[in-house]
Design a protein that fits this description.
Blueprint: H1 2-43, H2 49-61, H3 68-71, H4 76-83, H5 104-110, E1 150-151, E2 180-181, E3 186-191, E4 196-202, E5 207-213, E6 219-223, H6 234-240, E7 243-248, E8 267-270, E9 273-276, E10 284-289, E11 294-297, E12 307-313, E13 316-319, E14 322-323, E15 336-342, E16 347-352, H7 365-374, E17 377-382, E18 391-393, E19 396-397, E20 414-419, H8 428-503
Parallel strand pairs: 1-2
Antiparallel strand pairs: 3-4, 4-5, 5-16, 6-20, 7-18, 7-20, 8-9, 10-11, 10-12, 13-14, 13-17, 15-16, 15-17, 18-19
Length: about 500
């Protein structure tokens, strides 16, 4: 009996040891597989796998608080190699670091003589020239305009008159909520009174929206009232400046994600008032000059280019019709904010949601550039993104910001705003609108006055010519009459002389 019990216990012990050995072997195999996968991911450049690895590293490293997702998982040399490919406007890895968009392309688009001077390095023309004066539209709308119809929204014309000439009234609107454009993207807002359209873009990877504003003079940048200490919510900017819509602009100091938006990163200009710190060339700029022409790139002298409103971040996406960023460009997949301008002056504002699996993971810088180019932008740049990315229309957030403050967005140091067409009397915005209207009227009056002066001068010249012709005719007639009379007098005199000679006595 005792021997049988010992044998049974021995068998049980052996089974346990064998079971433990089997589990240990499975664990070792799993670790070996993971190690192999990790080594393959780190040291190989297999297409697809290496792309996913690089996107992961770029995305983590371009956040403020989650860089550890790259630095703890991958060796430093690999992180450095991936990030060394990042395209940064201010370092000149996107074309010329002094590149300014807005002048050369505008001159070509208008076809009327263009700008009047070159920028530093000669990369583009002076954006203050005549290039966009009375610019012709990029294209024309198409489609029936019925609900669910197809619209050519990517080439819908905007306002002309950017050079101070008389504005061209847009054609009667045919765009309606529910329409789809030629890319299959749906109109979610159509405000005819404010001449504003919002299009939603949905793909398997991201959700975003484009806000199209035909009059660039209504797009401005405004600063927080408490510079250096506290930013403002986007809704506060809209209310204070009587704007119908807006989105975020510059980045701001954000320690551990708890920044209050009061300490701006880079530089900004709001109605000519400059605010910022550091070198003006550290970040790429997106600005509008006093001619309402967008200027993008590295702007070292705001006064030289007559910048009225500007934000900085980067990189520059499109300059003078040339797309400068493709693919992830070292910036990963993030929530994004961007702004661009078409050749006819129309402004396109864009935001894309991100960091929300099941809704929107984010979008690359190259994809944003491609979308804005598809929608006709010839100049464009990125603003701050991430959890700050937000767009608002008529007091309501459009989209889903990645910040926990989803119904308001974060506190911002500045914002791009779309002013209402009729701002209240007594506000700076109304004064600016009045000044623009007065400038347009003055230019139109001057043009009419010049035409009238030319017409009057032509009439006077015609009268002078007629009078001169009359005088000449009279003089010729008088001369002719005088000659005839003289001949008659001479003949009479000769006849009288002959008669006298005949009657005289012979000598």
């Amino acid at each position: 009996m005792g021997s049988g019990k010992r044998s049974k216990k021995g068998e049980e012990g052996t089974d346990r040891r064998q079971g433990a050995a089997a589990i240990l072997m499975r664990v070792n195999i799993a670790f070996a597989l993971l190690a192999t996968l990790y080594m393959t991911t780190v040291f190989s450049d297999i297409p697809g796998l290496s792309d996913l690895r690089d996107i992961w590293i770029e995305t983590a490293m371009t956040t403020a608080d989650h860089q550890w997702l790259a630095t703890r998982l991958f060796p430093g040399w690999l992180v450095d190699r991936v990030m060394s490919r990042q395209v940064v406007t201010e370092e000149g890895t996107i074309s010329n670091p002094d590149l300014l968009g807005g002048g050369e392309w505008a001159a070509q688009a208008a076809g009327d003589g263009g700008a009047d001077g070159q920028t530093d390095g000669g990369a583009a023309q002076n954006p203050g020239g005549a290039g966009l004066s009375g610019g012709s539209g990029v294209g024309s709308g198409s489609g029936a305009g019925a609900d669910g119809g197809t619209q050519n929204l990517a080439r819908q014309p905007g306002l002309g008159g950017l050079g101070g000439g008389a504005a061209i009234e847009p054609a009667a609107p045919t765009i309606r909520v529910g329409d789809k454009d030629e890319f299959g993207n749906k109109v979610i807002v159509r405000d005819e009174a404010e001449d504003l359209t919002v299009i939603e873009l949905r793909t398997a990877g991201y959700v975003g929206r484009l806000m199209i504003v035909s009059d660039p003079s209504r797009v401005v940048v405004r600063h927080t009232r408490s510079k250096g200490s506290q930013g403002q919510l986007l809704s506060a900017y809209l209310k204070e400046h009587d704007a119908i819509a807006g989105m975020n602009g510059n980045g701001f100091d954000d320690p551990e994600g708890h920044g209050k938006g009061g300490v701006i990163i880079g530089w900004s200009v709001a109605d000519g008032k400059v605010w910022g710190n550091g070198s003006k060339s550290e970040y790429a700029s997106v600005g509008l000059n006093d001619n309402h022409t967008m200027v993008v790139g590295i702007i070292k002298d705001f006064e030289k280019y007559r910048i009225r409103d500007l934000a900085q971040y980067g990189p520059t996406l499109i300059a003078d019709g040339k797309t400068l960023v493709k693919g992830s460009a070292g910036w990963g997949m993030q929530p994004r904010t961007a702004i661009g301008q078409r050749a006819d002056g129309t402004i396109v504002m864009a935001t894309f949601d991100g960091r929300q699996p099941g809704h929107s993971l984010g979008i690359s810088a190259g994809e944003v550039a491609a979308i804005l180019a598809d929608y006709g932008c010839v100049n464009a740049g990125l603003c701050d993104g991430g959890s700050s990315s937000v767009m608002m229309y008529d007091g309501e957030i459009i989209g889903s910001p990645s910040t926990p403050m989803k119904t308001t967005g974060r506190y911002l140091p500045n914002a791009f705003l779309v002013l209402r067409k009729d701002a209240p009397a007594g506000t700076p915005e109304k004064a600016a609108q009045t000044a623009d209207a007065a400038a347009t009227a003055a230019t139109t009056t001057a043009a009419v006055g010049t035409a009238a002066a030319k017409e009057t001068a032509a009439a006077i010249a015609k009268e002078i010519a007629a009078a001169t012709e009359t005088v000449a005719t009279t003089a010729a007639a008088t001369a002719a009459a005088g000659t005839a009379a003289a001949k008659e007098t001479a003949a009479a005199s000769a006849a009288a002389s002959a008669k006298t000679a005949a009657s005289a006595p012979n000598a």
